[in-house]
Amino acid sequence: MKLFQNLVNQVKDVIEYDFGITDEFGLTLASTDEKEMGQINTLVAKVLQVRDNCLIMEGVSFQKIFIKGRLELILYINSVGEEAKKYMNLIAILVSDIKEFHDEKYDKNSFIKSIALDNILPGDIQFRAKELHLNYNAYRVAFLIRVENSKEVFINDVIQNLFPNRTKDFILTIDDENTVLIKEMKSIEDYKEVQKTARVIIDTLSSELIVKSHVGIGTIVDNLKDVARSYKEAQIALLVGGIFENDKHVVNYDNLGIGRLIYQLPTTLCKLFLKEVFKDGSFESLDQETLNTIQKFFENNLNVSETSRQLYVHRNTLVYRLDKIEKHTGLDLRKFDDAIIFKVAMLVKKYLDKAEN
C-alpha cells in the first residue's frame, strides 16, 4: 500500500536496517527493498504457526500487528537485538495508527453512504456512529451535485478540496453523474450558509472543470438517521427543479413552490385538468411567439405597459395578442383568475411532457 510505503521511506533514513510490512498472508505491502514489493515473504507462513506476537526467525525479527483484535499486518526487520526490537516497536505503533486512521476514514464514508441510500437498519445507526466516533446529534444537510456531460469528468477531488474536513463533511460518489456532499452545519436554521455552499460548488466546478452543474439541497436535519431524508429531498429538489425551473442551477427542497404540489398529482388527474382548461387542442394552436408573450406577461405581473416595453412592441399589439389568446383558449390573461388557471395549466403540461418522456 502506498500509505505504508510513504512511512517506510520516511523511516528508512533514520534506522540502518532493512525492514518491511506484509499482510496476514505474507504479501509484502511496503519495504526498504523495492524488489520485495508484491512478493510473498516465505517466512511469514512459519511465523503464523507460532503463538508469540514477537519472535525471531532465521535472523529476522517479526512482530504481529493486530487492529481491533484481528491480525492485519506483520512487521519484519532484518536484524536481531535490543536496538532492532526498539525500532520495531516504534514502527509497529506508527503502522497501527496509520491503518486505524485509514480504516476509520473509509468506514465513516461507507457508513454515511449506507445511511443516505437507506442500506442500514435505523436501529444500527446510533451504535455504529458511536463505534466510529461520529457525533449522532449534529446538524447536517445533503447536497446532491449533478454534472452535465459528465463523461471523463471527475468532480470528487474538486469537492474534497473545497471541503477538506473529513471528520465532519463527507463526499459520496453515487454514480458517474451524481455526487453527494453531506455537510455539517452550525444550526438547523443556517439557510444562508447552505445557499452559499451550493453557489460555491457551482462556481468552482464551472471555473476549474468548465462544466455545468446543478445542486439539489435537502433540509437540515439534526441526527444521523435523518440524513437519508435530507438526501431524498435533495433528489426530489433536482427532479422537480428540472421540470419546472430548469434554468436554475441551485434548487432547494424548501422552495419548490407549486411544482411540489403538481409533482405529487397522479398523471391521470393532470390530463383531466388540461382537457378541461384547453378544449379541442387550443393550447397546441398557440405559436412560439404567443407563448413567449405569455411568459413575459407573467414575469411582469400582468402589467401590459411593462410587458410591451420589454417585448419592444406597441401596447396595442400586445392587447391584440392577448385578445387572440382569449379567443383560442377562452381565458383572458388580464384577469387574475384566468391568469392563475393558465399558469397552473402550463406547469401541469410541463410536468406531463417530462413524465411521458
How are the SSEs ordered, and which strands pair?
Blueprint: H1 2-11, E1 19-23, E2 28-31, H2 43-47, E3 54-57, E4 60-67, E5 70-77, H3 82-116, H4 122-131, E6 139-147, H5 156-162, E7 170-173, E8 178-185, H6 191-208, E9 213-217, H7 227-244, E10 250-252, H8 258-263, H9 267-277, H10 288-299, H11 304-311, H12 315-329, H13 336-356
Parallel strand pairs: 9-10
Antiparallel strand pairs: 1-2, 1-5, 3-4, 4-5, 6-8, 6-9, 7-8
Report on the structure:
This protein has helices spanning 2-11, 43-47, 82-116, 122-131, 156-162, 191-208, 227-244, 258-263, 267-277, 288-299, 304-311, 315-329, 336-356, and strands at 19-23, 28-31, 54-57, 60-67, 70-77, 139-147, 170-173, 178-185, 213-217, 250-252. With 357 residues, the chain is α+β, with helices and mostly antiparallel strands. The chain folds into three domains: 2-103, Beta-Lactamase (2-Layer Sandwich); 122-260, Alpha-Beta Plaits (2-Layer Sandwich); 265-356, Orthogonal Bundle (Arc Repressor Mutant, subunit A). The chain has a five-stranded antiparallel sheet. β9 (213-217), α7 and β10 form a beta-alpha-beta unit. α9 (267-277) packs across α13 and α10 (288-299) crosses α11 (304-311). The longest helix has 35 residues, at 82-116. It is elongated. The two termini are 47 Å apart.
